[in-house]
Write a structure and sequence with these properties.
Length: 78
């Protein structure tokens, strides 16, 4: 399964739906993970940390929404 994590866009929402440790768990169970660039910035998690865990970094939320089979978010889509 391809799991996608878009950047949160609601005002004052700094959390992210998954940490690099969570990405590694999905990868270890045979899934792929894509993360929108900057998704972890509000939680002090760099794109490089997600890459090191095995995620692919994509440039836009549109890429995440178009490609992912399952979306992980903190807040509802707006």
């Amino acid at each position: 399964m391809l799991v996608g994590v878009p950047r949160e866009i609601k005002n004052h929402e700094y959390r992210v739906a998954i940490t690099p440790a969570g990405v590694k768990e999905f990868i270890n169970h045979g899934h792929k993970v894509i993360v929108e660039t900057g998704a972890g910035n509000g939680s002090a998690i760099s794109d490089d940390a997600y890459k090191a865990a095995g995620a692919e970094i994509v440039t836009s939320a549109a890429d995440v929404w178009a490609r992912a089979e399952m979306i992980l978010k903190v807040k509802e889509p707006i």
